[in-house]
Design goal:
Thiol Ester Dehydrase, Chain A; 4 helices; 25% helix; three-stranded antiparallel sheet; alpha+beta
Length: 204
């Protein structure tokens, strides 16, 4: 699987051509399917991460890939994707949370203490306010992308506004730059994960 120029190239089963998208807010899993297809990874879209990512990179500060709701296991959290500035086979993923009251309190405390807060951004997804957690962002390659987040009403990819998109990307890039300078603003050890991913992406 190879990501090039913003496209994730994947092998998908023949039945995907006739498979109707699920109304469960996720596109069908691509695992084990057989013919060649492409899934675009563009700004403003959301994706779910394979369990293998959390096995290969067992960082305790990564957002858990599953949560239990009413006894049922769900594909959560969902991650917003944007491209790395320099490496077109590397993406950065920002999880979002519905626990807005919790993160509003954290945001207010950071604003009172530092006068600014770039690590948490609030925005609307499908008409509901969400907290985008730049403080929990992580790098990824296409090998670890499972499926995209779909609107159950339209079976179309969920998108965000251009204004929110620009705010998220600009703040995430600023926080990432500060992290590279040694300021601990992101909880997972993203530089270690990034180094391992780059080894996988580099030709032998």
């Amino acid at each position: 699987m190879q990501l090039k120029c913003g496209r994730v190239q994947m092998f998908v089963a023949t039945r995907y051509a006739t498979h109707k998208r699920s109304s469960s807010n996720v596109a069908p899993s691509l695992k084990g399917w057989g013919f060649f297809s492409e899934v675009l990874m563009n700004k403003g879209l959301f994706y779910f991460i394979k369990d293998k990512y959390f096995i290969d990179f067992p960082d305790p500060y990564l957002m858990k890939n599953k949560e239990i709701i009413n006894g049922q296991e769900h594909n959560r959290p969902c991650f917003y994707a944007f491209e790395d500035s320099n490496i077109n086979s590397l993406y950065w993923m920002i999880p979002f949370s519905s626990q807005t009251n919790k993160f509003h309190k954290i945001y207010i405390n950071k604003m009172a203490k530092y006068g600014k807060c770039d690590t948490i951004v609030f925005g609307t997804v499908l008409g509901h306010e969400k907290a985008f957690l730049i403080q929990n962002m992580c790098p990824i390659s296409s090998n670890y992308i499972n499926n995209e987040y779909l609107d159950s009403a339209t079976n179309q990819p969920v998108r965000i506004s251009g204004v929110l998109e620009n705010e998220l990307i600009s703040k995430a890039r600023r926080v990432l730059a500060l992290q590279r300078q040694g300021k601990k603003l992101i909880f997972p050890d993203i530089l270690k994960i990034e180094a391992e991913l780059l080894k996988e992406l580099s030709p032998i």
